[in-house]
Fold this protein.
Amino acid sequence: MKTSTIDHCYRFFSAAVSVATNYKVNDAPDTFPGSGTSTWNGLRARMEQANPELSAILFSDMYFKGKGVLLVANGGCQAVSNTNYEPYLNNFLINGGRQKLYTYTGVNLNEVNSGSFDNKVNSAIGLNRCAVAGARDPNFTGGSFYARAAADNFGAPTTNGVTSLRFFHNPTQKEASEACNYAAKAHREGTAPSFPQLAVCTYNPATKQVVSSDTRLDGGPQYNCTLDNSTRTVWLDQAVTNTESFQTETGQTVRLEFDFGDLKASLELSVKQSWGRTWSATSRVATQDTMTIRPEYKGWVTLRPSLERYTVTTGVDYPDGGPRLNVQYQMDFAIPSTEMTTQAVGLVTQPMTAAERTSMC
Ligand SMILES: [Ca+2]
C-alpha cells in the first residue's frame, strides 16, 4: 500500500474547485456554504458535469463545514456494480497526478498524508452518484454508518472517529424500480438471477387518499338549433385509464407498463393486501345534468373524476451493501360512477361555429 503525500492544499474552497473542475467552475464560495443552503445544489451539479470522476467532498466538521477534501473515484460511481468503488484519493486534486492508493475497496484515512485526516471527517457530500459509507476502524471495521448520498452528521459511533470510507453507486429511482422488477420476476419464476436482479425489494403497506383528477373529461355537446333557449340533458360516459407510475429525480413521471410487469403485479398485490382493492386497467365514470343552452349555442358537461390514490413505498437494497433507496409509487384508480355524482362537475356553453351550424342544424 502506498501512502499519499499532499502536493497542494488550498486556502480557499473556490481555488480547489477551480483546479478540481479543470478551471471550468470558478465561482465557488471561498468557504463551505454549510448545510441547509441551496448553494450546494447548483454548484454540485456544475462540478459533477465538469469532472465526472469527482466522487465526494469530505468535511472535518458536521453540517458540511470546516476543512475539506475532494475525492476522485475511478470512473465515478455512475454505474450499477456489484462492488463498491475504489477511489483515487487526492487532496483537492493534486495537479493531474492521480495515484491509485489502495487495493482495498475504499480509503483508510490513517494511511493518507500521515494520518492527518484520520478521525477528522464528520460529514460528506457524494458527487456523481456516489454514496459514502464510513467506519471507525481501518478496512471498514468497527462502528459504521450506512452509505448515503449526503450526510451532514455521521453521528455515533463514528463522531470524530472515521478511519475508513467506502463508495457506492447511489441508484436512480428508475434503476431501483428495474431491480425490483427483476427481483419480482425471479420470485415469480423461482429462478436465481445474478446481480443486480438479486436486489431485495421490500413493499411497505399501501396508503390511500381520495383526490380529484387533474384531467378534465368532456361529455359530447348538445346543439341548440332552435330560436329559443333550450333545456337539455347533458351526459358523460367514459372509460378512464388507471395509472401506476413513479417520479424520477428530475420530476419525470414514468408509467409502469409491460416492461415493469412483475413490479406492477407486486404493487397491485400490495394494494389488494392493504385495502382489498383489485386493480383494473380502466374504470367507467358517468354523470348527467340538465342545462339551458341559448339559440345557436352548444353545451356539455365536464367532470374531474375522483381518484383513489394508493401510494406504495418500496425499499430497495442492492447486494453490494450500498445505500437503500426508497421509491414511491403512485397508483391512481378512478372511482367508478354511474349516476348524478358528487364528483367535480362543470357545465360549459359556447357559440356554435359556422361549420357546426351547417352540419348539426
Ligand atoms: Ca478511527
